[in-house]
Specification:
single chain, alpha/beta, 3 domains, six-stranded mixed beta sheet
């Protein structure tokens, strides 16, 4: 007798203009399992699950729920068939309560609502699956982890048997991630299943009963728990062997390169984004900065780079007071800046690789002849850098960089910033959105710069990345420094507690 499946997807193909997002993909999900969908960014994971959730319709292929073939025209059709999706970016009305968000769009409710009864029902549902939440709380009052629970409760409230989670740990602390994984095991009951979309290999090893790997829109394998390791998964994702660990020598910190003394910086909302932060970064070390998004990371990077005004305190680079110097003056002090928005802040989308690579150096005599650019010298320099940093161009050096992939954009940005041999590198989410191979390239470049004596201020929300690269980890919470810890003698749980504001007095600066 054939094995029973909750969901079967057969031969799923989806085209977008100029792109084949999925090609003849097969996926089956068993009752009671956590099935991980793994792949690089752009491999087709989210598209495939958006088809299953009714957001897209496949160009080819068929979907079965149980033994019944289905044809979804909308997410409502998928929900009625027992399939619900929690997206990476939450879809909640912030001024509404938890209950109001959960029941929003439920056409089965009577005209006159009995809110107390609904609150009890939702409280019982959340308690059953370990998703503790106050039904009367308004969304704006909740933490990021609590908001995610509301999204999950919304799906469970509608009776979904297959729960799809798209990169659910991207905004969670280690404690919240651990709690989520425990709850997923409860949700994947005997007649239910969870599909988890991720590109993090450690998460797969922790929770997957089975894993299906996508590469370039195709399914390249489905593996059972116990038959794979991180290296196997990385090879399937990329198509070749990829190191999963960074090799580096112990840090030998030198003199202080960057020092912040009681720095206060305002956010875009007119409130302190940084509030009394003091820290140092030494030559030959990487100081990682951890924190949930919106706790001062952006303000820190922009203040040091000369892009945001300091309203109190001082910033010293190489012992010189550089408080409120402009970006050009900061660059001249030997500071490289890798911003989080590659195209918006780091590169000019409409210019080619050549012009982007000399964007900070066009005034140098090497590349200028009076008011004119020496194109021959600039071309030679750009050719050398694109080869050295393995930037794969979409045409020649003058083709707009907006045509490049995320990994190539980041390599181009690194080529420009690092080639100048900076003494301080501000790296903000340097591997965000990159695949395994591109991430490894970025990490090795930062380690190499550290070995050559650069001071690195590494800002990231990925604790795996921070622990892999950092010598010390500073934690920001609501714009304040919660603590600075040595990476070797601490653990993600301790950092996670600081990220949530706990034990702020317990971590001493080192």
């Amino acid at each position: 007798m054939a094995e029973a499946y909750l969901v079967k997807m057969e031969g799923i193909t989806k085209y977008f203009p100029g792109v084949t997002a999925n090609y003849r993909v097969n996926l089956n999900v068993r009752p009671g399992e956590i099935h991980v969908l793994l792949g690089e960014n752009g491999s087709g994971k989210s598209t495939l699950m958006s088809i299953l959730a009714g957001l897209y319709r496949p160009d080819e292929g068929q979907i079965f729920v149980g033994e019944k073939r289905v044809d979804f025209h909308s997410p409502r059709d998928a929900i009625q068939a027992g399939i619900g999706m929690v997206h990476q970016h939450f879809r909640l009305v912030e001024t509404f309560t938890v209950v109001e968000n959960v029941i929003l769009g439920d056409r089965t409710l009577p005209f006159f609502l009995h809110m107390r009864s609904l609150e009890h029902k939702i409280a019982a549902l959340s308690e059953r699956y370990g998703l503790k939440i106050n039904p009367q709380a308004r969304i704006w009052q909740l933490s990021v982890g609590e908001r995610q629970r509301v999204e999950v409760v919304k799906v469970l409230y509608r009776g979904c048997r297959v729960l799809i989670l798209d990169e659910p740990t991207a905004v969670l602390t280690p404690q919240e991630t651990k709690e989520l994984f425990a709850n997923l095991r409860v949700m994947a009951g005997k007649d239910k299943a969870v599909i988890l979309i991720t590109h993090k290999l450690q998460e797969v090893m922790q929770v997957a009963d089975r894993v299906t790997v996508l590469r370039n829109g195709r399914a390249v394998g489905t593996l059972e728990r116990g038959t794979f390791n991180e290296r196997d998964l990385a090879r399937l994702m990329v198509g070749r062997d990829v190191p999963v660990q960074v090799t580096r020598m112990p840090a030998v910190p030198g003199e202080v390169v960057l020092e912040l003394r009681d720095v206060q910086v305002m956010s875009d909302l007119g409130r302190p984004g940084l509030d009394g932060v003091s820290l140092t970064v030494h030559r030959g070390e990487i100081l990682g900065v951890a924190g949930i998004a919106g706790n001062g990371q952006r303000e820190l990077a922009e203040a040091v780079a000369g892009l945001r005004k300091v309203v109190r305190g001082r910033i010293y680079i190489g012992g010189e007071d550089c408080t409120n110097l402009g970006p050009r003056a900061i660059i001249d002090k030997g500071v490289a800046h890798i911003p989080e928005d590659r195209l918006g802040s780091g590169l000019v989308a409409g210019l080619g690789a050549l012009d982007n690579l000399i964007l900070k150096d066009y005034r140098r005599q090497d590349f200028s002849r009076g008011p004119f650019i020496d194109r021959r010298a600039a071309t030679a320099r750009a050719t050398t850098l694109t080869r050295q940093f393995d930037v794969r161009l979409a045409g020649d050096l003058d083709a707009p960089v907006r045509l490049l992939s995320g990994g190539n954009l980041q390599r181009l940005l690194l080529a420009r910033e690092i080639s100048a041999s900076p003494r301080l590198i501000i790296a903000v989410y340097p591997a965000r959105g990159l695949d395994v191979a591109a991430t490894e390239t970025v990490h090795q470049l930062l380690i190499k710069q550290r070995a050559q004596g650069a001071a690195v201020l590494l800002i990231s929300e990925d604790l795996d990345e921070l622990f892999k690269l950092s010598d010390r980890i500073a934690v920001l919470f609501k714009g304040r420094l919660a603590g600075i810890l040595p990476a070797e003698s601490t653990d993600p749980e301790e950092v996670g507690l600081l990220m949530m504001g706990a034990n702020m007095q317990g971590a001493e600066a080192v």
